[in-house]
Design goal:
1 helix; mainly beta; globular; Jelly Rolls
């Protein structure tokens, strides 16, 4: 079994000084914690895997293809592989759990 505590993951990510912390990677799934500061810029490019974002805290918007959506704690957004997307208009630091299926970068 692999089990995680969100508070510990948040601490690990802060210590890494990186916006993204991958904490699980198996062939069919990977997971990470992604944090963007208020007024921050999300420089993502499309991924070759499907992904799901679960917003743990914060407030902002996500653009997926040509559609904009407000996101806040509790929002869940699915993004299909190879679709342009990014978070923007971040009003309050946003903390996001990210799920890739299959694992990120496995379809390169």
């Amino acid at each position: 079994m692999q089990a995680y505590e969100l508070a510990h993951l948040i601490s690990q990510r802060e210590s890494s000084n990186q916006a993204y912390l991958e904490f699980l990677k198996v062939p069919d799934l990977s997971m990470g914690l992604y944090v963007l500061p208020a007024n921050g810029v999300d420089f993502q490019s499309p991924h070759t895997e499907d992904e799901v974002y679960y917003v743990v805290s914060g407030k902002g918007k996500i653009k997926v293809a040509d559609e904009d959506r407000d996101v806040k704690a509790g929002s869940i957004v699915y993004v299909g592989k190879n679709i342009e997307h990014c978070f923007h208009s971040i009003e309050k630091e946003i903390t996001i759990l990210v799920f890739f299926a299959p694992a990120e970068y496995s379809n390169k």
